[in-house]
Amino acid sequence: MNQWERGSKLLASALDLVAQKARTPQEWADHLQVFVFGRPFTFDVDFDDPRWDRIDTGPRRYVGNITASNYPRKFRGKKRVTCMPQSFDNDWKDQEAIDAADARNGWTADRVITETFGEKYPDEQMQAPVIGICGDPVDRGGRLDTPYVSLDPSGVHLFWDWAADRWLRGCRALVVLTVEDL
Question: How far apart are CA 66 and CA 50, in angstroms?
């Protein structure tokens, strides 16, 4: 089956599903958005919590050669965050996640948002890994690496990703859509 046939089949499935649930034009729009893009998640985050100044190790936490200073914090204070795990139909690179976030007027999640998302919605990481691309590539001995946080069934992983590497298609990038003051 080629790309066009897959796309047509997906669209037909989406319209059938939406037709079963939607009763008004607004419900059509809401259900179609969830089907195509996924469900947004909204939660409160305390960016000033002292735990973000360090990286704790412990059960179900895997920490590579990385420190808290490698994870830039984009915000301070208490905020309400809306984000969405972005799926891909291919093995994807960090730049593809950044481009997908840009297309939605968003950005990739930092460490604070990614770990808080994992705490608030632990079932999401059981369905498929959720990745926070947490900064810009850094030259580490002639190789560009990006700090990341990965949430998956085995736990929380904090490490470096080689910027030219690819994530498996089952992994989802966490895209931030809005951040508001509380």
Answer: 18
